[in-house]
């Protein structure tokens, strides 16, 4: 049973216009770490929008967890190249944001709120941000902001994590630190990952399966399973 399934999916942003992606079919099983690589403009972000329900396909079908995607999904966590932390909120308050939005965590009970805050503090510890809970985004380095962003994406325990170039703006050293952090998180608490990147080395380091897309129209050129010993 696949967890994410594309059946001959195409998408045009304008009625009858050029296709951003064309005839894309793929199957992702639950717990799999998938990377999608390709040049800028090949439709990687478009695929993310389709999986997360932000865009309907122009043709074909997108299924997540056995159901056709019909709108934004709450089982998805997302992070992007820009950390997009809210500047008026502390690290802890940023990480708790999904808990204020996603139903199971919405509670007016003070004891429940305290429990969720403890969960968020524990999660920040796991991404190496213990001690930075009360800092504001501008007081954090780029790498730390991205740690907080990934922490926020995972705080409501989504079954699917979508990452769009999350390490693209970081220096090479910080990037590799965050690769290791992400791999550790994924190994501790398995969730399905779709990582969009133009860095083939990153894809091969992190993913079980790499899809290579062609530019215009975006099609899948190659699907490769990576079977390397993990350090
Ligand atoms: P990537 O993420 O691989 O850089 P995108 O999915 O952003 O690629 O874009 C794929 C193609 O669709 C590109 O040709 C891009 O210009 C076009 N495109 C993306 N978003 C829109 C949009 N909102 N309206 C029109 N065209 C778009
Ligand atoms: P990336 O390469 O990181 O996907 P882009 O610079 O291609 O980023 O796109 C940034 C945003 O602009 C995306 O939300 C994309 O959907 C939108 N976009 C891209 N191309 C077009 C386009 N031709 N017309 C309208 N919006 C677009």
TrEMBL record:
The answer to whether the entry has keyword Translocase is no
GO molecular function per UniProt:
ATP binding
Key words of the record: ATP-binding, Cell membrane, Membrane, Nucleotide-binding, Transport
Per UniProt, residues of the ABC transporter domain are: 4-231
> Does ATP-binding show up as a keyword for this record?
yes
Q: Which N-terminal residues, if any, form the signal peptide?
A: none
Q: What protein family does this chain belong to?
A: Belongs to the ABC transporter superfamily.
Name of the molecule in the record: ABC transporter ATP-binding protein
Q: Please give the organism.
A: Viridibacterium curvum
What is this organism's lineage? Bacteria, Pseudomonadati, Pseudomonadota, Betaproteobacteria, Rhodocyclales
Q: Which residues of the full protein are shown?
A: 15 to 245 of 273
């Amino acid at each position: 049973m696949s967890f994410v399934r594309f059946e001959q999916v195409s998408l045009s942003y304008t009625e009858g216009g050029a296709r951003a992606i064309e005839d894309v079919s793929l199957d992702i099983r639950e717990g799999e770490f998938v990377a999608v690589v390709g040049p800028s403009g090949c439709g990687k972000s478009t695929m993310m929008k389709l999986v997360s329900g932000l865009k309907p396909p122009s043709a074909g079908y997108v299924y997540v967890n056995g159901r056709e995607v019909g709108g934004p999904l709450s089982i998805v966590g997302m992070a992007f190249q820009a950390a997009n932390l809210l500047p008026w909120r502390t690290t802890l308050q940023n990480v708790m944001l999904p808990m204020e939005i996603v139903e199971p965590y919405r509670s007016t009970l003070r004891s429940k709120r305290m429990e969720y805050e403890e969960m968020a503090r524990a999660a920040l510890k796991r991404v190496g941000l213990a001690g930075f809970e009360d800092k504001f985004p501008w007081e954090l380095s780029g790498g730390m902001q991205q740690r907080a962003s990934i922490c926020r994406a995972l705080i409501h325990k989504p079954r699917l994590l979508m990452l769009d170039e999350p390490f693209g703006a970081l220096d090479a050293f910080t990037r590799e630190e965050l690769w290791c952090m992400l791999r550790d998180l994924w190994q501790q608490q398995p969730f399905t990952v779709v990582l969009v990147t133009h860095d083939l080395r990153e894809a091969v380091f992190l993913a079980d399966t790499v899809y290579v897309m062609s530019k215009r129209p975006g099609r899948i050129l190659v699907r490769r399973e990576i079977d390397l010993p993990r350090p």
